[in-house]
Specification:
- With 118 residues, the chain is mainly alpha-helical.
- The protein is built from 1 helix and no strands.
- It has a domain of 52 residues.
Length: 118
């Protein structure tokens, strides 16, 4: 075992400073690869979370828009009914006024005829 360690150490010493630099670069590249992988993994998770949140917001917004459209249609229908009712009443008003006028005249004539003579 000691022989194996000395053999490894002697091989390492053969390469010297360039070997140490290469080994350091390999370790640094491995570390950077791991860091980039971790960042990309967290970015993917964040993107998935934001995607789900966006879908939820979109669904809620669509539901809200649907409710707004329903309320707007209901208001438009009420306005149309009010307009139609007002138009109908305005068209009937002259006839009602004439009937009321005739009724009052008839009533006045009847009252004049039913009063006893002095």
């Amino acid at each position: 075992m000691l022989a194996l360690q000395t053999e490894s150490l002697s091989k390492f010493s053969e390469y010297g400073l360039p070997g140490l630099i290469i080994l350091t670069l390999i370790i640094a590249v491995g570390y950077l690869f791991k860091v980039v992988h971790d960042y990309s993994k967290s970015d993917r998770q964040r993107a998935d979370h934001f995607g789900e949140a966006f879908m939820t917001i979109s669904k809620d917004q669509n539901e809200t828009n649907r409710k707004i459209v329903d309320v707007t249609e209901k208001i438009a229908e009420q306005n149309k009914n009010y307009h139609d009712d007002t138009t109908r009443r305005l068209e009937e008003m002259p006839e009602k006024i004439i009937k009321e006028f005739e009724y009052r005249q008839l009533r006045q004539v009847q009252q004049n005829n039913t009063t006893p003579a002095p």
